Amino acid sequence: MPAQPLTLLISCLTLTQSGCVFPGHHWGEWNDSQLQPTIQKLMKGYNRYLRPNFNHGPVEIGMSLDIASIDAISEINMDYTATIFLRQRWCDSRLVFPGNESVSVDGRLVSLLWIPDTFIPDSKRSFLHDVTVENRLIRIFSNGTVLYALRITATIACNMDLTKYPMDRQVCTLQLESWGYNLQDVVFYWTRGNDSVKGLDTLRLAQYSVESYYTSVSEAVYETGQYPKLVLHFALRRNVLFFILETYVPSTLLVVLSWVSFWISQSSVPARTCIGVTTVLTMTTLMMGARTSLPNANCFIKAIDVYLGICFTFIFGALLEYACAHFCTMQHQTIEDLHRDLLREFNESNRNGSIPVVTSSQPNQSVEVGSTSEEPAEQPEKGDKDSDAGSKESRSGKRCGLSSLKDASRRAASLFSVENPHNIDRHSRTVFPIAFLFVNILYWLYYLFL
Known about the structure:
By secondary structure, the chain is an alpha+beta fold. It has helices spanning 3-20, 36-43, 241-258, 269-290, 303-352, 382-416, 422-449, and strands at residues 59-74, 79-91, 102-105, 118-119, 123-128, 136-141, 145-157, 169-178, 186-190, 197-198, 208-222, 225-238, 356-357, 367-368. Helix content is 40%, strand content 24%.
C-alpha cells in the first residue's frame, strides 16, 4: 500500500479511536505509539482487490434499507424516483483488531477497502449525494465486521398495469444484485427480514398510499452465471378521490344535463339542439383532458376510458332521441295530411258519380238523381242496360281501389310511425336514468371488487 494513503488512514483511525472510545480524554493525551502498531498490523498485507474469505467460501453480505422519500411516480415513463439509505454489512477477517469498540473511517478512504459491487438492475438514472462530501459511511468493528452505508437517489423502472386506472393497484420492486461476484463469491441476505426496510410505513405520497410491502431473496440468472439478488416488493394503491372530483362527477353531471331536453317541448328545436350539441362537445373535451396524463401509445383500455365512453354514449343517445322524436312528429303530421287528402279525394269521387234511385212503381221505370224532367223516362234499351251495369261496376271498383289504397297506406305508415311521438320523451325520462344507474352499479362493482 502506498505510504501516503496509509498515513492518512492511520491518522483518521487514531483521531476517531481517541475521540469515540475515550471521550473524556483529549487527543493530545494519547501517544501515537499506543495505536500505530495495531493499525500497521491491521493493514499489513491488506489487498483491496481480493474479497474476504478468498478461496474459503462466499462472503455473506447483509443489507437493510431506509426509504427516505419517493419523489415521483410516472405513469407515462412507468418508473418511480426514490431516495434511499443503503446499508451493507459483511465480515472481513483481515480487519480484526483487539478490543470491543468500533472505528468510523472517513468515507473518502473507501478506496482503501474492499466493498461489494452492489447495483440496482432496474435503475434508469441514479447518483450518489455529495453535499458537502460524498454521503458514505464506513465503520469497522473489532471482530472484522464492516458497515458500509450510502445515500443514493435512483429512478427505477416499474411495470404498471393501467387497466383499472384510476382504481389501480401497482406492485413495484427495488432489486439489488451483485455485478461481478456470483453465488460462489458472495451471498446476499436481509439482516432482519421484512424489518430490514424502514420508512415505507410513514411515507406520504400525493396520489398513492403504500398498502403493503415484503422482502424476498432470489437469484439472477444470466449467461455469465448465477448472481445473488434481493428484492423489495411494495404495493401502491392510488387515491381515487381526486379523480372522482376531477372527472367522474363532471361527466355524470353532463349526462344529467343532457336529460333536461326530455322536459323541453319538441317544438323548441333550437333549445333542445343546443343542449345536445353542447353536452357532446363538453364531454369530448373532458375525454381528451383525461388522457393527457397517460401514455399516448399504450394498449390499455383503462377504467376511466370505459366510464367516459359510457357517459358519452348516454349523452349522444339523448341527442339522437330528440332527432328520432322530431322525425316521428314530422312523419306523423305528414301521414295525417296524407289521410286527409285521401279522404277528400274519396268524397269528391262519390259526389261526382250518379247513383240510380228507383222512384216509380213500374218495375221498368226509374229516374236518375239530379234529373229535372217530370215525364216518365223512356224504357232503356238493351244496350243502355249493359252500359249502366258497366258504369256501376266501374264506380264500385273505383271505390274499392281507393279504400284498399287507404288501408295499405295506413298499414305501411303504422310500421314506421308512432301514434303519439310525445310518448318518446315521456318514456325517455324513465328509461335513461334507470339504464345509467344500472350501468354505474355494474361498473363500480367490477372495477372495485373484481
